[in-house]
Amino acid sequence: SLSNLTDGADVNFWADESGNGFHVDGAPSKFPDVVLLGQNNLPVVEFDRSNATECMSTTATTVTDFREENFHMCVVFKTASTGDMSASAGNRQETVYAGNIDNSAFEVRIPKHASTRNVRFFGNKENTDNEEIANNLVVHAVNRSGTADNQSSIFLNGKEEQTFHEDYDYIDPHTLMIGAVGTAASPNNGLNGQICEIVFYADSLTDDERVLLEGYLAQKWGTDALLRAKDGDDDHVYESKKPLDGITLL
């Protein structure tokens, strides 16, 4: 949906391809740029926080009004090859996307732990660290199949990292912030990297559905090398093949 732009141009509108009209634009202080030949030679949105925090947001609509229902959130992003994530950077944190302005809903964030990066999900009830990343392409997903203990899970590159309790009622409308947290007029904790794709489902996914989604994203964005074994023996189903391989159409 970004291929009509000129390489390096501001992304002031990012179309929702689900058909539900949840487009993002907003009025940030600085828009991110499009890289037409990005990951796997596909257009990506690049965020650079060096001068001012670049971000996008929803305006008249909200995509995060999941109420008490289940959901699945998935994002493919790539951290920058350079950046001040060293110990001298202080308490630097980068936001991939957030459905809140005050940590009252959720946020996918890369916090600094000494000189390492971990992908973290901030829900209403849980702050959960994931496995460390280092300038890699990342498939990060959060799935809530219920509000009881251990019915929410975080997946990183096809591997379940942690289950936890997350029972927040997302009934209040929350603006979706992409590339920052806060508001479009006053963003903070900006991302230094690229976002390839964000997929939201207003329902949880079964394991088979989630694995299919991971296989689709792996083939589209060239992330198959990052679809790791979920345990010590079994590789991811689509680590080396497309989701349609082996399917007979009747």
Q: Can you walk through the features of this model?
A:
This protein is mainly beta and 250 residues long. 6% of the residues lie in helices and 32% in strands. The longest helix is centred in the last third of the chain and has 15 residues, at 207-221. It is globular and about 45 Å long.
Précis, in short:
The protein is mainly beta.
Radius of gyration (CA) equals: 17 Å
Overall mean pLDDT score?
80
Low-confidence stretches: none
Compressed to H and E, one letter per element, the order equals EEEEEEEEEEEEEEEH
Kindly state the number of beta strands: 15
Question: What's the helix and strand layout?
Answer:
Layout: E1 33-35, E2 44-47, E3 56-57, E4 71-79, E5 93-98, E6 107-113, E7 116-122, E8 127-133, E9 137-144, E10 152-156, E11 159-164, E12 177-178, E13 181-182, E14 187-188, E15 193-201, H1 207-221
Antiparallel strand pairs: 1-2, 2-15, 3-12, 4-9, 4-15, 5-6, 5-12, 6-7, 7-8, 9-10, 10-11, 13-14
Key words describing this protein structure:
single chain, about 250 residues, mainly beta, six-stranded antiparallel beta sheet, 1 helix, about 5% helix
